[in-house]
Records
---
Amino acid sequence: MKVRRAGDPQRKYEEQTSCVQNLVKLLLLLPWHLLHLAVTIWYFGLDIAHMLQGYLISSGLLRNYKVQNLSSLRYLAIVVDSEEAHHTSWVVELLNWLLAIGVKHVCLYDMEGVLKESKEIILKKLDDARPWEVADERSLYMERKHMVLEFLSFSDGKEGVAKAASFLCSKYLKGGSGGEDQEPVFTEPEMTSALRAVGCGGPEPDLLLVYGPGRCHLGFPAWRLRYTEIVHMGSLKSMNYGAMIKSICKFTMVHQNYGS
């Protein structure tokens, strides 16, 4: 058995190699941590700036952000994180803000259906609102007396596709189209008509405001988002009247191109 002494050249070489490897790892990780710190500080600064701007808009000091024409915002959707959706008082306050500026058609969505379960509570707390089911869809956009609320969850999107597919297949089989080995091919207009036939169509939101940690629509029915502008608003507990006004103003001032 060989015993290495303190002055063994082999041991010194291994120690030096280990120190060099650790130094290289540190030098490689340092730029990544500096970049991560810089991005964090940047977004933190942006959040602070947006918060201050929101308070300035709320106080009326920034008069450029004032909702004057809501003709392009016919239908507004609000996506709320399911954990925050339990705070119905926050949701009601947000809806009252929308009522104050003249938004009349709103869709409330969360994945787990918390808002749908709180439907009666929300409607009772609002002085001038009624559910979408009792409104006439043909005259929906002409409604100006009441706020019309639609409540959706993730199950509505999943079940809606299943019902529409079943409806199309049954219609295809009854019609006797195609041969036995020919697979049915359905177009987008046919799918849209099927979704409306099973009661899962609904109007397409012009603007969708997302309240929650995720920067996505959290499973909102995709077939209703073809021309929808999506804006992430941050957490519902830190919602700000000025930030909401800013998002709506920016949407109403942008020219919309829908193609030919």
---
Amino acid sequence: MKCKAERIIVEKKSFQVEFEGLNGGTWVSVTERSRGFVVSIGFDMEELDWLMEHLKKVVEVEASRGFVRKIRGKTKTLLMEICFNNRGRFMKITEFVTKRKPLFLVVPEGVKGKGWEDLRKAILSVQEYSERDEELRRRRMVIFG
């Protein structure tokens, strides 16, 4: 059951953050759309906590510094890198899963880290909505049995 989706635009890319319900565990997906290219990566709650912690840190990192962080989950590994090119800084989040090509999201920094901060805020908004929705469901089960 999908509860809420948030969309942000950073430079020419569109990102959608969605709470994907409780199927097989609670998780959130982040989908990147740009020029006929679509990629989506799902994050369980542990991975989402990791992502949120590091999104906050990268906004504060000096513009001249890189950044690499990794988390190993039960079925995949996520790698977050801050990279540079002629257009400026960007964040690359790569998902490695056995027997599949890696997937990656590329999020431009935007003006003064606004792209990364907007992504963090969209994830927070979806998380808060999903937590309220989950609490309502629990109350209904207690009331209606």
---
Amino acid sequence: MSRKRALIADTFCLKRRRSAADAVAGDSHAEGAADIRSSLQNLMTLFSRKLFNDSLPPVVLKHQLYSLHSDRTSVDKQLNELRASGELLMFQLGFDSEAFALVFAEDYRAKVLQGEAGRETLETVEKFLDKLIPGCSDLSFNKEKMLKEFLFTDSEITQLVKSGVLTVRDAGSWWLSIPNSGKFIKYFIKGRKAVLGMVKKSKYSEILKTELEGRRTTSHVKFQMKYHIHDIVGAELVECIQTTSGTVLRYVDGNIN
């Protein structure tokens, strides 16, 4: 039985289905990374770009991959390799201490520079991206690293915070962040609560996954329904029960206050 989760609490190791190819010596890492990359690309097609006037890069919550994969340890390793290679960035979203988002680095660069066009902070932001994307997998940066390793001045750090690529973590340290992501977080939380409410209000607090996928979105659900279903399944906010009629999603008590 799935563990109970608070409404916004997430788990952040990845699950994946192992394929026969994963067992082939010498090929497993490359194939695993390709598998995770493909899953991320598929999930990102569910991201509603128009909702944010195409100002945000496609965002996937790390735990959404749980609904597609089962081998957490192996996938976590492949995910870290994609981050270390500079292909993928991870962000602590701020509404929960363990809420992480995944964005492809080139998508992040493109949207950040798009938003910086014509601004006085552009040059500093470009300098930061050039140091970040080649292979920095940090979620946050302290002042010593920013000054001595990245060679930024105090005024440049202030510009990076102003641009939204950094947010204050505490005195002398900053989170890497996605500019203008506040609306995304607001819509995500509201949508999660609404979709969980649909499951809870169903007969016996359970519903066929296909039926939920077919539900029309409401004013409280801004994203595609499948985006939220990957969220609530991956975060174990619902149980998945296999039946002859298909997968049934059952509400887990304690998720909505």
---
Amino acid sequence: MDDEESKCSSGYGKPPWIFKGSALYQFHLVKAEVAKAIIPKEFRLVEAFGYTLGGFFLANYNESPFGMFDELVVIAGIVWNPPVSHAWAARVYVNNDKACRHGRKEFGLPSQVATFSKSIKAISARPKEKSNGFSTINDVGTHDNMNIAEINGHVATSLYDIRLASPVSEMHSLKWMAMGPAIKMSLPSFSGHTEHIPQLLKYYCQIDCRVKPTSPAKVLGLMDRKHTSEIQNAELEESLEKREMSIAVMLSKPILALQFNCLKMEVEPPIVVSKGSHNLS
């Protein structure tokens, strides 16, 4: 680690930057070969039996330095840089231009502007057999479907449909029990090695929320490469490959999903760990 670590300056208000809302943090088993295609080669991937721990963080912020917006962070895996291990974001999607610029220029994140289109569909559980022989359906819930499309210029490319289950039957009469116990945690991450921030950075998200396990979201990948590669060049091919690897992360096997309610996240300015290159290939 470089002894001359220094904090990045900010043009987006005084840190720490505070975000409030709700989120889903879903952990996936990601194939090591997929994660290695995304993370810088200088890192050693934390893996076992050919897999690492990745997944995604899907948040809806009702308060932030940039107002209300949605965010999807695709986490490729866990990387080791002695003496600590941190998560590595393969892609970040936000539906707010200012938040996108902030992520790129302050944190060296691979941020992209996207649309988050939401719809709600009612669902019913299996019929319950009564003693009189009649069947009834007592458990009714909803599916929150979210379509995420990346915006490049005037072109929107649909990437994912994410189905979030929210059964009403799981709600408890006491609100605090329905939302889970209160916890505080720190989520460490590495970033950088991008066009805007060639250095390697590290930063921490201090989270205060109520958390409870929930059913994993179902993710469908929607991108059709045929419609996104009409112009063939090396830069486009590299971008498509990284995006496809990010999609592979999203489509990998979920093992745990945590619902964050009453979320308050404080993000400190990143610290420069070392000089580097934005070439991740």
